Amino acid sequence: MSLSAAGIRRLAVTLQAAAALGIAAGLVQLAGWPWPGAVAAGVAAILGSFASGIAFAFALSGRGLWVGRGNHPPAPPLELAATRRPLRLPEALRCFAAECVAVLRMFDWLQPFRAHAPFAAPLDALPGRDAPPVLLVHGYACGQAIWLDMQPALAAAGYRCEGIELKPVFGDIDDYARTLLAAMRRITAEAGRPPLLVCHSMGGLAARAALQLAGDEDVCAGVVTLGSPHHGSALARFGGGPNARQMRCGSPWLRALAAAETPRRRARMISIFSWHDSIAGPPCTGWLDGAGHIALAGIGHVTLLRHPAAVRAVLDALAELSARGH
Fold first, then answer.
1. CB-based contacts of 167: which residues, under 8 Å, 6+ apart?
2. CA distances from 313 to 127, 226, 236, 272, 292 (A)
3. Pairwise CA distance, residues 198 & 141, whole Å
4. If the chain, 326 residues long, is cut into consecutive pieces of 10 residues, what is the mean pLDDT of each piece?
5. Nearest CA-CA partner of 195 in 169, 160, 166, 165
6. Cα–Cα–Cα angle for 260, 263, 267, rounded to 5 degrees
7. C-beta atoms surrounding 280 within 10 Å
8. Torsion angle of the four alpha carbons 182, 184, 188, 190, in this order, in degrees rounded to the nearest 10
9. Which of 317, 304, 318 is nearest to 150 (CA)?
10. Measuring CA to CA, how many Å separate 200 from each of 11, 57, 184, 223, 326?
11. Which secondary structure element, helix H or strand E, spans residue 16, and what is its range?
12. Where are the transmembrane segments (predicted)?
C-alpha cells in the first residue's frame, strides 16, 4: 500500500525533527553544548539545508540547466516576452524568502497536518453573475491541502470549490487524467453545468490530458493553469515515478499531448506563470501557444498558491472564462 502525499510529508517532518535532534545530541555529547543552544543549532541546520535546496531549484530552473538545446521551450510572442525582466537584488531576496516561507508552510504544515481541512463555503455570487463550480487540481507529490491559502478568496468571489486527490503520488499523468475526467463528469451532472478547473503545476498537464480524453464532451468550462510546466521542467529529472519522466523537457509524452491539441481546446485555457518560478523552468515553459496568458514576476512556484498578485490573477482568469460561458 503506497503512502498518500500527506503521509509522505508527515514522514518527512518526522525525519527532519529526528535529524535536528540528532545534531543537537551530537553537539551536547561531543562539544558540551547546553541543550537549548544545541537544539537551536540543529533546527538551524535543517532550515539551512531546506533553504539551500530552494536556492538550487531557483538556479537550475531559472537557467534551464541540464536541458538539451533542442528541448528548451519555444520563444513566446514578443509582447509576452517583453514582460520579462531580471530582478533587482532586493526583489530577488524577497522572492527567495517568500518561497522559503511558502515551502515550509506548505510541506511541513498544510500538507502533512491539514490534508482533510474543509474548504471555505462560497459567499453568494456577485449580482448578475451565477458563478460556475470550480475544481481545484494539485500538482506533483501534493494533495488538495495546497489550496487552503487561496481557496477562501475564490469562495469569497462566489465560487463553490471542490478538490481532488490524484493517486498514486508517483503515478502516470494519463491515469490522473481519467480520474480528473470522472470528477468533471460527476460535477457536471450534479451542478447542471461543467466546472472551471484551476490547476497548479503538474495539475495543468493532467487537465490538458483529461480534455483530450473528453473530446467534444461538454464537461469543462475552461482551464486556468498556475505555474504549469507546459514544455517540461528542468527539475523533473530529479523526480520519481512516471509522472516525473513525463514532465521532463521535450519528453515524448509532452510532445504527443501538444500534437493532439486543437486551437479550440487551447483557446479555453489561461496560463498564469511567473518568470521567476523555482520549479517550472526554464522560464518560457509556462507559455502555451493559443492559450491566454497572465505573466507575473518575482514569485516562486509554491508562493504562487498564496501571493496576492497570483490570487488576483486566478480570479481575473476565472471571471474571463466565466464570461465566455454566458
1. 2, 4, 179
2. 21, 9, 26, 7, 12
3. 17
4. 88 98 97 97 97 97 88 92 96 98 98 96 68 97 98 96 97 98 98 98 99 96 98 96 97 97 96 98 95 98 99 98 81
5. 160
6. 120
7. 32
8. 60
9. 304
10. 23, 17, 17, 11, 26
11. helix 5-31
12. 40-60
pLDDT at 129: 59
CATH number of the domain within which 298 lies? 3.40.50.1820
* Residues β-bridged to residue 233: 248
Q: How far apart are the first and last CA of the chain?
A: 45
Looking at the structure of the chain, the number of domains it has is 1
Give the alpha-carbon dihedral of 285, 290, 296, 299, to 10 degrees.
-30
The residue written with cell numbers 515515478 in the block is 241
Distance CA 191, CA 120 (A): 18
Nearest by Cα to 206 from 242, 158, 155, 159: 242
Residue with grid cell 512516471, as numbered in its chain:
242
DSSP character at residue 197: E
Q: List the helix and strand counts (H, then E) for the chain.
A: 12, 6
Q: What is the per-residue burial (b if ≥16 Cβ within 10 Å, else e) of 251-260?
A: bebbeebeee
Longest dimension (CA), the chain: 71
Full residue range of the structural domain in which residue 124 is found: 1-326
